[in-house]
């Protein structure tokens, strides 16, 4: 017995199979094009109380001055750059700052007071003679290995203390200074994307 070939049913099946295949390929392409968000790393209590401390943004560790991987030197409230790294202060909020500038970097030493830090001096209220991160300012760095990074200073004192507390306001009970807490992000692919 001969069966009659139904062209319209055959074409419908081929069309549906093709649509499913294209749909799954399209989803695979979308998954491959997703750019993962960069990881925000936090460094707590990087101790510079005994002298300058050299930090590699690539490895996320303090290193010896002789190392070829350090990018930034924390020295009191000042910053220096090494091994070809350069930096600049940017007005912006760390979380919202998404693209590093292509130019404007400098290898010159950077005075933190007046740029990234505020010195309270003999403030009429609150803590006197304190060094506090300046809100709305971040440091953008082009690292020694040509990656872009952003840094948000959190604290200049051990333990990231509450700067409005009585213990902090009182100079005799204030925690040790020159002990840095900060957030940072490094873009590993060399692009200026910092999100």
Q: What is the rounded distance between the termini?
A: 68 Å
Order of helices and strands: HEEEEEEEEEEEHE
Strand content: 25-35%
Q: Evaluate the radius of gyration.
A: 26 Å
- Overall helicity: 10-25%
Tally the helices: 2
Q: Specify the biggest β-sheet.
A: 5 strands, antiparallel
- By secondary-structure content and strand pairing, the structural class works out as alpha+beta
For the secondary structure, the number of strands is 12
Main-sheet strand order equals 1-12-11-10-6
Mean pLDDT: 88
Count of domains: 1
Global shape: globular
Question: pLDDT below 50 for ≥5 consecutive residues: which ranges?
Answer: 19-30
List keywords for this structure.
HmuY; signal; 195 residues; 15% helix; HmuY protein; 5-stranded antiparallel β-sheet
Structure, described:
With 195 residues, the protein is of the alpha+beta class. It has one domain (35-187). Helices cover 15% and strands 32% of the residues. It contains two helices and twelve strands, in the order αβββββββββββαβ. The protein has helices at residues 7-32, 166-169; strands at residues 41-47, 53-56, 61-63, 72-75, 78-81, 86-91, 110-111, 117-119, 131-133, 137-142, 148-157, 177-187. The strands form three sheets. It has a five-stranded antiparallel beta sheet with strand order 1-12-11-10-6, with no helix packed on it. Strands 3-2-4-5-7 form a five-stranded antiparallel beta sheet, with no helix packed on it. A hairpin with a 5-residue loop joins β10 and β11 (148-157). The chain is globular. The chain starts with 6 loop residues before the first helix and ends in an 8-residue tail after the last strand. The model is unreliable at 19-30 (pLDDT under 50). Residues 1-26 form the signal peptide. InterPro entries: HmuY (IPR025921). Keywords: Signal.
């Amino acid at each position: 017995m001969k069966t009659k070939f139904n062209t319209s049913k055959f074409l419908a099946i081929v069309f549906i199979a093709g649509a499913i295949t294209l749909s799954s390929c399209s989803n695979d392409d979308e998954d491959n094009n997703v750019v993962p968000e960069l990881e925000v790393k936090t460094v707590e209590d990087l101790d510079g109380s005994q002298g300058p401390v050299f930090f590699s943004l690539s490895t996320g560790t303090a290193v010896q001055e002789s190392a070829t991987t350090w990018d930034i030197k924390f020295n009191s409230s000042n910053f220096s750059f090494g091994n070809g790294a350069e930096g600049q202060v940017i007005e912006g909020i760390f979380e919202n700052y998404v693209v590093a500038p292509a130019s404007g970097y400098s290898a010159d030493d950077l005075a933190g007071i007046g740029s990234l830090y505020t010195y309270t001096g003999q403030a009429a209220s609150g803590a006197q003679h304190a060094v506090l991160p300046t809100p709305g300012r971040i440091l953008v760095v082009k690292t020694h290995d040509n990656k872009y990074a952003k840094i948000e200073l959190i604290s200049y004192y051990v333990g990231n203390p509450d700067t409005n507390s009585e213990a902090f306001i009182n100079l005799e009970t204030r925690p040790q200074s020159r002990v840095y807490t900060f957030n940072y992000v490094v873009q590993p692919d060399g692009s200026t994307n910092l999100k």
